[in-house]
Amino acid sequence: MTPPSDRAPGRVPAAVVATLALLMVVTSLWLDLANDAVDRDRATVGWGSLSALVGAIAVGTAVPVLWRYPRHPVAWVITVTGLFWSFDGLCESYAAYGLAHTAQDGQSLPLTGFAVWIVAQVGAFLLVGLPLVLLLYPTGRLMTGRWRVVSIVVVAMACTLPVLLLFAPTSALNAEEFQLPVDTGMPQVPIPGDLFVQLLTVGRFVTLLSLPLAVVVLFARQRHASGRERMQLRWLLWAAVMCLVVSGIAIVLHNGWIVTVALMLALGLTGASIAIGILDPEVRDVDALMGGTVVWASVAGTVIALDLVLVATLDRLLGDRLDERDATLLLLLIAVTIYAPVRSRLTTVVHRLLVGRRGDRYSVVTDLAARLEESGDVRTQLPALATAVATAFKLTYVRVEVFGHGGGTIAATYGERPRDVREVPIRYGEEEVGLLELPARGVRSMLSKRDQTLLVDIVRQAAMAVRSARLADDLQQSREQLVLAREDDRRRIRRDLHDGLGPVLGGVAMRLDAAGNALDRDPETTRRLVAQSRQDITDALADVRRLVHGLRPPALDDLGLLAALDQQAERMSSADLAVTVAADDLPPLSAAVEVAAYRIASEALTNTARHAGARHAAVRLTGSPGSLLVEVGDDGAGIDPDVVAGVGLRSIRERAEELGGRTEIDCPPDGGTRVRAWLPVTVDHEEIR
Q1: What region holds the Histidine kinase domain (predicted)?
Q2: pTM passes above 0.70
Q3: Residue 85 burial (CB < 10 Å; 0-12/13-18/19+)?
């Protein structure tokens, strides 16, 4: 936006051009009222005030832009074109007035020839305005690179015919079946009329060709545009659609005044859309406006065609048996009876053909929910989601991608991928669970704010379904892992008991029997056997402690979580690394949460000691309603972004996820590594009361 201090100077030129255009309209109208039809026929001109009014409309659409941006090139091109259009209309009115008030010596009023010259020859420069606006809009600058060269060529082509007409010989103009009512007195090019007529034919073709080439440059700008500039170009596209609609109405009605009003309306809409695009393209949802305009125009055209068919059918069936009054009443009765339902049905059909079912928000969401319910896992849900989005928005391409916990992805695609696409994240809460890929270009890819709301609803519905399916898969995997872990522990314990403790205790029993037998006859052997048995029992107790420690760290039962972490910190501390432990407001913790917190902190400290090269590490436990935060930070070298997570980091994530928690491992800006794990804490209902 332009600062307020830059807007004040724009008020002077805006007021001046507006006043000048209004004065020319008033003067031209006064001259037209003073002229009669004979005067205009003699001057071969029409009502010049109409042309002056058209120019004033163009100026009026540019004034708001000049008011805010007094140096905007597009605004000045429209302003100069509008002023010249009004001046051309003024000259048209004055030419008729000057020829009507001829002096007794046959001389017309002063400047009459000049006015005729402006209307007949200089007025062709109005053809330059539209291509120039298309080349400069919306930035006010030509495109760069090769398109800049093309733009300059387009401007030169647009000026070809006006330059040729500027000093065209009178013989060439008369050969074009246009008789000048008076000698303009302007200099002429000394070229034979027949040759100059051929030049005018070529110039007319070149100038008319400049307009489609300008449109090509505009489309090239649209392909390279993004963000605000693309939205500005959509306003111009909407103006083009409105011009086609208005032109169609004028052609169908085929009335002179209606055609004139339609052309003025088209010009006003184009200028207004350009002004809106420059000043505030987000003042209204242009995509919704575009969709509504296209649908309305299609429905209106269909209804008009049906009315014409109905009138022709009644005329053929009834002929002259109905007078105009009866026919009108019959048509009104039919229209009241069937127009509303037919219009409603046509609106639905046309809207679905053009932009899909995006207008029926409730139906789209409920149909998607039904489709997702029919499929139980992610692999069957994704094609249903892609099809639902493509059907709802009438898109030719939709791709849905869901992220897996292990880094893999699952995707489903509808249609063929275009050149340009955009991505819409699928989020469940703060977690991004996938991506939705849609076309980035085309009328149907334009999403209004209402369409974006519908897309958000679809994405939210899909996120819940994907999240549920993933949780179901995770639950099944967790069950399988629990069964496997339980059987592995049983196998390990059985192996340790059978292959370790069993033989040791069996050997102890045999040695004790041998010691009893040798007690009387060989006391020395008895003492040796008893000593060996004692050592075996001591080793067996160590094995039992090892087994128990593998099931649950004994320090948790002996000391508690905080003291156990203090003990672990002492083990990890050395001359190069100092470890501290702190805790805030710890709630009562279950055995599973204590073990997970202890293991996560121990694993994080182990990684710090082995890989971080840190001087200090800190463990902090923080209790909050419903969760326990385990945080381990150090001042080491941090984790390189290219490093793949190892066993230790994966173990930390898995221990938190086993309990339904989450982890976050990052490197703060001030250096080091920070490991945070949130573990859910179940609060007893008695405690809540």
Answers
A1: 599-683
A2: no
A3: buried
